[in-house]
Specification:
- The chain is about 40% helix and about 15% strand.
- By secondary structure, it is α/β, with parallel strands linked by helices.
- The protein has one domain: Flavodoxin domain (Rossmann fold, 3-Layer(aba) Sandwich), CATH 3.40.50.
- Helix 1 crosses helix 8.
Length: about 200
């Protein structure tokens, strides 16, 4: 089986919903398996000394999830990565960035070079910084030598959706009325999962 890592951080569960549907899209491709992983939360504190200590010893996120914490072995064993984060001031969330900052050994060894990757996000407003957040997640993946996969406009919903979904990656807009993903968002999330899996399968030989 071609193992594809779906790595995400989610505080309220919206990004986790996207991760689930991307995983479903991945497993629609024969021979591919989605491996869902999350990252540890980082306690928020106003004390600089305490913050420095906390950043080196993060606690488990309070969001209820059955997904295990990611390990560096997950990066070595996967054939591709789908990576997601909620929008944080137009950027990825700190817990995800914190994990990426620990991947220097993978960068030095070229562990992720030529592996495909995609990104996904969620925000509480339509113009809340989704595209810049998606791009912020692409940057470290490019430094790792990964091949970035987006959603092509051959997906009809990308032309018409008034909800989440961008050519840069899958997304969700939480308008505050219903936190559940819109059908358009689900379709596009599964579409990018299928595309990532298809490319990973071909590249794996």
């Amino acid at each position: 089986m071609v193992k594809i890592l779906v790595l995400y951080y989610s505080l309220h569960g919206n990004t986790r919903q996207l991760a689930r549907h991307i995983g479903r899209g991945i497993e629609q491709i024969e021979g591919c398996e989605a491996v869902l992983r999350t990252v540890a939360d980082i306690p928020i504190t106003t004390d600089i000394a305490t913050a420095t200590t906390a950043a080196t010893t993060p606690t488990v996120t309070t969001m209820k999830t059955t997904d295990p914490m990611v390990s560096h072995d997950d990066l070595k064993q996967c054939a591709a990565i789908a990576m997601g984060s909620p929008v944080r001031f137009g950027n990825m969330a700190a817990p995800l960035k914190h994990f990426l900052d620990t991947t220097s050994s993978e960068w030095l060894s070229g562990t992720l070079i030529d592996k495909p990757a995609c990104v996904f996000t969620s925000s509480s407003s339509l113009h809340g910084g989704q595209e810049t957040t998606l791009q912020s997640m692409m940057l470290p993946l490019l430094h790792h030598g990964m091949v970035i996969v987006g959603i092509p406009y051959s997906e009809p919903l990308l032309h018409t959706t008034c909800h989440g979904g961008t050519p840069y990656g899958a997304s969700h807009v939480n308008h505050g009325i219903n936190k559940q993903l819109h059908p358009d968002e689900i379709t596009l999330a599964q579409a990018i999962g299928r595309r990532l899996a298809t490319i990973a399968y071909k590249l794996s030989g």
